[in-house]
Amino acid sequence: MAAAQGGGTRLVLLGAPGVGKGTQAAEITRRTGLAHISTGDLLRSAIRDATPLGRKVGAIVERGELVPDALVGDLMEERLSRPDATDGFLLDGFPRTVAQADLLDRILARRGQGLDRVISIEVAEPEILDRLTGRRSCNRCGAVYHVRYNRPRAEGVCDRCGAELRQRSDDTETVIAERLRAYREQTAPLILRYQTAGLLAAVDGRGTPADVFERIAAAVPGLRG
């Protein structure tokens, strides 16, 4: 595995819906200070700030269309040029396909850089279904619970603010099964690509968040910060 030029650690975080990517991304960036770059956040920020690229993205989203890879690549290249990404970054949600991975390689090559590690959090699909179908969220404060593993004190009521807890529309079994199918189809070739390149670290996503982080840290030297 070749070290990236220019200093810092450059990581990609992969994982199906429900494996805990958000939790691990937050812990990794908290411990290391790496810039956490989420594709979803990047798109929303560009639209909100009405940048030239953001206006293009906004028009596409309003039409209900997928944002083209080239446009996502332009946003990513601009984001990676900011000072906080100079000393490394954690990419979350990009790349999702082999074509996007090729695009990322070209972006980094223009900067004289390369990836250090690609972390793939692995959880069996039956457990993912159990995690997501049992999830309940508070629309007011954003707190998240689970009907078995993290129950509120009063059923259906948020401990933090007292608002009603609801199941997200995309947390039904039918929708989750479709999201997992799409992830398998898109990401299986991507995982093979990074495995062949010697960059992939497949990590067991079962257990507590602390357990999973320790496995990630063991696969990425120096990650404990």
Briefly characterize the structure:
46% of the residues lie in helices and 16% in strands. By secondary structure, it is an alpha/beta fold.
Q: How would you describe what is shown here?
A:
The chain has 225 residues and is of the alpha/beta class. It has a single domain, classed as P-loop containing nucleotide triphosphate hydrolases (Rossmann fold). Helices cover 46% and strands 16% of the residues. The protein has helices at 21-32, 39-49, 52-62, 69-80, 98-110, 125-133, 173-196, 209-219; strands spanning 9-15, 35-38, 88-92, 117-122, 135-138, 144-146, 165-166, 200-204. The strands form two sheets. A five-stranded parallel β-sheet has the order 2-3-1-4-8. The chain has a three-stranded antiparallel β-sheet with strand order 6-5-7. Helix 2 crosses helix 3 (52-62), helix 2 crosses helix 4 and helix 6 crosses helix 7 (173-196). It starts with 8 loop residues before the first strand and ends in a 6-residue tail after the last helix. Mean pLDDT is 90; it is low at 1-6.
Helix/strand-derived class? alpha/beta
What is the number of strand segments?
8
Name the helicity range. Answer: 40-55%
Strand content: 15-25%
Integer-rounded radius of gyration: 18 Å
**CATH overall fold name:** Rossmann fold
Number of domains: 1
Q: What is the CATH H-level superfamily?
A: P-loop containing nucleotide triphosphate hydrolases
Query: SSE order, as H and E?
Result: EHEHHHEHEHEEEHEH
CATH architecture descriptor text: 3-Layer(aba) Sandwich
The end-to-end span amounts to 20 Å
Please give the largest β-sheet. 5 strands, parallel
Order of strands, main sheet, comes to 2-3-1-4-8
Mean pLDDT: 90
